[in-house]
Design the sequence.
């Protein structure tokens, strides 16, 4: 039996060379990568001494979102970012990820690995649910059984992780045994799933939990986190949270904070989430001091906010790539010449400048630039309409001197359906796709826009049908490598499947972090050549907040990870 020390989180490990890197080296790389994200001059208020924060308990933060949360159930699939950020403050897992990119215990004290198939987790005994019920082993068992017995509860990512678990059982009153079929490289990843209170849900049917429990148990969620759900306004959609003063952790500053005695939990007394129909109103209220924070600023407003001395801007890493997801219902899409023609026809730099205020980097493949899984000097995807037109001609479709679409000998032309979803008023996805429509028309391809809502887009992407192109965003999965997810996609063209199969085998045989990184670099380059998706750009993320808000720190995966340390000082 071996005790496991903290390890680098797999998302960050995939960027920084797995666990053989020292923490200082990881932090240095994070800092360097953050500099690459944005040239913004950032002025973030920080507390330096215990005296500065001695009287900072109290006050509240109001932050804006561009859409309302759809479901606060931590096991529900496809939650929007508004819901994800709220649940970060309400629910917790057995383990979490700290700012160093290491796993550390939350509801658990520690765990030990026994052989290749067994984890034994020791639980904390000083934790209470927000309704005053004591946290116990039944809660952990209930949550994981929900995942094991009802796969539809969770996202595909969580289902894949939970699928490794054979059973979960209690070992006394404060320990849990996890039996797994195959131990992940980072066992803690199995323990980061947020826990539900069994005393509220154990008598519910699967359908009731999945539908959101009309009696209100999910509309007023109960967790163990630093903030307690207060209320949701039935008309305005605002959500209020109150500080959990029975929270088992102090703000992570200094052990001197025990001088506050029983005053535990976060510095802030309350948080309010306020939804906006457009970014215009959100930014206007930030300027006017009505709200204190925007987690992700619309790029067009960054220059304006940057010029305001009472607003701080904080760029942070993004693990996402904007892309055109391809469906292969149209047989011609399996021909690499068409995929390359589409990619060459799109001027990514022009789109970034016109629609994203320059706040993005042209993609070089499936991994974001500046990370070890992306080559050190990646080749950005080029723009060349002449080459695109020639590739269309090679397919047998030629532009006529009078213009129009390129036709073949039978008089037919290439017609593609581009699915697009605007998630909020002011979102420029439709404008971007209209511009892409124009670029492809210039090389002889007709593009028909298919406006859809979020649920329709997700359903279509899940089936891989009903579109030829879909404007979407790919986020790096928590299991670090994209190779397994590509290898599991049977709809990919033969040339892509064969290459992914080879690289998957190379990754399996890799016995060192350097070997894994080389395989991932090669995967990145080969996907940039074979284009199973049309990779567009890596968006930069920038948070904005008023300068009376101090100690703001965000995580690239979980935005509000450090919220208990934030405070306001006038």
Sequence:
């Amino acid at each position: 039996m071996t005790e496991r020390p903290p390890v680098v989180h797999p998302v960050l490990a995939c960027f920084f060379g797995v666990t053989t890197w020292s923490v200082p080296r990881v932090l240095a790389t994070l800092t360097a990568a953050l500099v690459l994200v944005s040239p913004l001059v950032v002025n973030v208020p920080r507390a330096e001494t215990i005296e500065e924060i001695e009287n900072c308990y109290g006050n509240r933060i109001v932050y804006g979102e561009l859409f309302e949360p759809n479901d606060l159930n931590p096991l529900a699939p496809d939650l929007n970012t508004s819901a994800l950020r709220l649940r970060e403050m309400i629910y917790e897992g057995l383990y979490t990820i700290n700012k160093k990119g290491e796993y550390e215990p939350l509801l658990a004290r520690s765990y030990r690995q026994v052989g290749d198939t067994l984890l034994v987790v020791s639980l904390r005994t000083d934790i209470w649910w927000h309704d005053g019920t004591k946290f116990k082993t039944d809660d952990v068992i209930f949550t994981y059984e929900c995942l094991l017995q009802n796969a539809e509860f969770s996202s595909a990512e969580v289902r894949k992780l939970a699928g490794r678990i054979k059973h979960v059982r209690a070992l006394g009153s404060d320990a849990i045994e996890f039996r797994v079929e195959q131990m992940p490289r980072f066992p803690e990843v199995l323990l980061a799933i947020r826990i539900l209170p069994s005393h509220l849900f154990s008598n519910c049917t699967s359908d009731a939990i999945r539908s959101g429990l009309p009696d209100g148990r999910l509309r007023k969620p109960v967790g163990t986190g630093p903030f307690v759900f207060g209320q949701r306004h039935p008309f305005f959609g605002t959500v209020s949270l109150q500080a959990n003063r029975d929270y088992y952790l102090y703000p992570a500053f200094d052990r001197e904070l025990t001088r506050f005695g029983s005053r535990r939990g976060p510095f802030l007394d309350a948080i309010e989430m306020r939804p906006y129909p457009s970014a215009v109103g959100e930014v206007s209220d930030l300027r006017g001091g009505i709200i204190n924070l925007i987690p992700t600023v619309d790029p067009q407003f960054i220059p304006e906010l940057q010029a305001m001395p009472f607003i701080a801007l904080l760029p942070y890493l993004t693990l996402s790539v904007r892309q055109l997801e391809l469906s292969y219902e149209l047989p011609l899409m399996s021909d690499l010449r068409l995929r390359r023609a589409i990619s060459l026809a799109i001027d990514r730099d022009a789109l970034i400048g016109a629609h994203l205020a320059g706040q993005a980097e042209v993609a070089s493949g499936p991994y974001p630039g500046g990370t070890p899984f992306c080559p050190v000097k990646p080749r950005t995807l080029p723009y060349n309409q002449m080459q695109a037109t020639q590739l269309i001609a090679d397919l047998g479709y030629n532009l006529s001197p009078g213009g129009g679409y390129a036709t073949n000998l039978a008089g037919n032309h290439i017609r593609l359906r581009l699915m697009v979803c605007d998630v909020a008023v002011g979102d420029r996805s439709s404008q971007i796709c209209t511009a892409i429509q124009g670029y492809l028309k210039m090389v002889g391809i007709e593009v028909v826009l298919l406006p859809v809502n979020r649920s329709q887009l997700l359903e279509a992407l899940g089936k891989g049908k009903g579109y030829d192109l879909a404007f979407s965003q790919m986020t790096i999965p928590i299991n670090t490598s994209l190779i397994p997810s590509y290898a599991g996609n049977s709809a990919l063209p033969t040339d892509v499947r064969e290459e992914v199969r080879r690289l998957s085998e190379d990754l399996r045989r890799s016995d060192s972090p350097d070997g894994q990184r080389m395989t991932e670099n090669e995967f990145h380059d080969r996907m940039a050549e074979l284009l199973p998706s049309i990779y567009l750009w890596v968006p930069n993320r920038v948070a904005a907040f008023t300068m009376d808000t101090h100690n703001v720190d965000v995580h690239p995966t979980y935005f509000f990870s450090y919220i208990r340390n934030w405070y306001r000082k006038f």
Notes: Residues 359 and 540 are 5 Å apart (CA to CA). The first helix runs from residue 10 to 16. Residues 41-73+82-91+225-317+541-570 form a domain with the D-Maltodextrin-Binding Protein; domain 2 fold (CATH 3.40.190.10). Confidence is low (pLDDT under 50) at residues 1-39, 211-217, 253-261.
